[in-house]
Hints:
Blueprint: H1 9-25, H2 27-48, H3 52-85, H4 87-93, H5 96-99, H6 103-106, H7 111-145, H8 160-173, H9 178-209, H10 241-244, H11 275-283, H12 285-290, H13 294-312, H14 325-333, H15 338-349, H16 363-372, H17 377-394, H18 401-409, H19 411-420, H20 423-426, H21 431-443, H22 454-465, H23 477-526, H24 536-555, H25 561-577, H26 580-583, H27 587-607, H28 612-633, H29 665-671, E1 720-725, E2 728-737, E3 743-748, E4 753-757, H30 758-766, E5 770-772, H31 778-795
Antiparallel strand pairs: 1-2, 1-5, 2-3, 3-4
Amino acid sequence: MSASTSLPASQYQALYRSTVEDVAAGGGLMMGKLVAAARATLQSREAACRDLRLRDALVQSAKHLRSWEPELCKRFPKLLLEAFENPLISRKAGNQAVDEVAFDELELMDEVQVLTSVALARTQQVAMLAAEASLTELNTLICTTLGLGAVDPERNPLRPQVYIHALRSLIEQTQLPSDVQLDWLSAMSVTLGNELRTMYVQLADSLRSKGVMPAGYAVVKTFAGNGIGRGVAQETGVVPAAAATSDRLPFDGDGGARQAVGVSASAKDASLLTLDKLHSLLAGAFAETAQLSPREQFARRFEQEFERNAATNPDELNTDFDSTVPAALEALTDMKQVDDVVQRLQRRQAVVSVPILAGDTSVEAVRGHLRASAKGIGQLLSLEVITMMVENIAQDARLLPAVQQLIRRLEPALLRLALVDPRIFTNKQHPARVLIQEIAHRSLAYLSVHAYGFSEFMRGAEEAISNLLSASIEDSEPFELALNHLSLVWERAAKASERSRAEAMVALQNAEQRNLLAEKIARKIEKHADAAQVPDVVIHFLCGPWAQVVAQARLSGLSAAPAAEKYQSLIAALLWSVQPVLSANDVPKLTRVVPRLLSTLREGLETIHYPATRASVFLEALMGLHQKAFRSAQKPKIEVSAPATRVVASARPNLLEDGNPWIAPEEARASNFMDLQEMPDVADARAVPSHPGVPVTPGVLADPGFTDSGNVDELAVGSWIELLVNGVWTRTQLSWASPHGTLFLFTNAAGTTQSITRRSRDRLMNAGQLRVISGRPMVDGAFDAVAQTALRNSVNRPL
């Protein structure tokens, strides 16, 4: 029995509404349990704390919690109901705790924001682990009550991310110190997960008892590789082969938010990249410390690792400095021994992690050598970030194997650069970042190594980076030279198609301008006093082709002003001529007007090269209307009376708002316009052929591994897409979009252009015949993946 046969849609709507309201109303009781759990946790920490200052802080935190408890229990139901009822809030809350930490934004965050991100991610992980099994079943039932044919977990407003978002907002409303807010949030996480698990089970039982049948999961083939911003450790829990054999620590394959809370093998290593270390690296803290004397470095690091951590989180003193505590305490009792302590620390950092073989130039050997010679934790982290970034890009399955290998070959040069120029992490326009981005992005033009132009592309890239593989990297200049060399090669290759692309852009821009003006003219025609009394065929013609004629004349400048005035005056004359009740009473006028009307109509339609066959259809209909008027004139005089009016404005769609502007034949030829009037509907998308690189999913804009956003309107110029043309998949790039977003021009690697309207683009997408391959810059996504890995490592550190 399907879900649609168990309950009518109206009952589903009422059931969904009552379910959401009941769950929100239970928020007060849930908050009471969360507060009780947090109070118990704070009391436990207070009893175990030996530092009077920290104990006082815990006492104050518990005191604030007691005073705020009634208000928290009162406000939480309202915040939950607001989140449940507002789709924007609900969707924004999805995966917020993890996904909001971007690499380039991390530099601008302060320490409190970093700690908050880690706390939110840990809270989400704990809640998801506790509630995941019961949430899966509830998703199927909630989606049925929403009228969905298949399960869409993000449409379930009761998912844990929404609760975490509401909880965070509620705690922030207290405006208490950040450390107090973090204490509460962390202490409530376990109880929140348990409460959600119990609630999900009860809700599922209740919905099933009321006749709700579960929606099915749509089988969607997804991209198996590392999508933009996904990192190497995927939620599938599968460790990539390269990561499994690598000596790099963060690639433990624990699977992000799906892994169990605990200490991973890599988390025991002092050099594990965590969010706080990455933040310090981007903020330049390590670079500043490197300029200090050994004695000052020791004092600075001791203060950061112990005094600062003790003030912010007394229970989390497990740092990469803890093994030196005895030596540090000894040094504090006798400051003369500080230099000895610093020397011991430096010797420990100088341990070679990978043996260096004589003459060995492999990437692993270079990594080991550079790590051994690194000066301080800052340089070690720089090397780690570069290695992870390169691996994220090189494992991206969108790149052909030859391109992946080329990116990997660049790693030694990038590692050397990171030691002398940390701007590569903070400057998005750094020559090294731009070079990698351009190589990776431009390679997406080719579906296979046999594609037209791929051999020339690889030859140019190899030639440009050849010096980087052996040059001594002292600054960014070698990368800048390589980038300039490649840019010249690409510019020469693009000149062959530059003229045709420019002509296409001009043609499409003129088309959009004409359509914008034609829409304004059409709206005035619809408001004409006689518009409601004439047949539909006339109104559709005047608001369609003839509005284009008038607009074209007006856009042609002063030389066409007389013609524009003539074409404009035809509108009133034509409206009068097709009303038998008026024209039959003045046959002499009708006799004079008709020939001029026909002549002007043909002349005007020729200016926009309107197809002759379509023009003939209208002219025949028009002559029929005029003949009817002449026949009526042979009968007795007709008393003019007000005929019944009808509404015409609402019957005609706004073609620009509909994304379907009219393209003149010469504009279509100049831009290789795709006319999709006869395109099959979405229901026929099952017949769309797949190709070995990407599985086809009808109704899906892009494979989840290929794009960062499911909103096709956010497609940026420069993005690569795959388009099904005449049964064959082609790779092409969005090279231009009209100012109002109604027309799009694509150019492939061979320089061939293709243009479509917004409506055609949407129809292709819905039919599974258009999908986005790249959206945002690939290097940015790879660095974001590093930030996500650092966040996961922070979450999985022992509490």
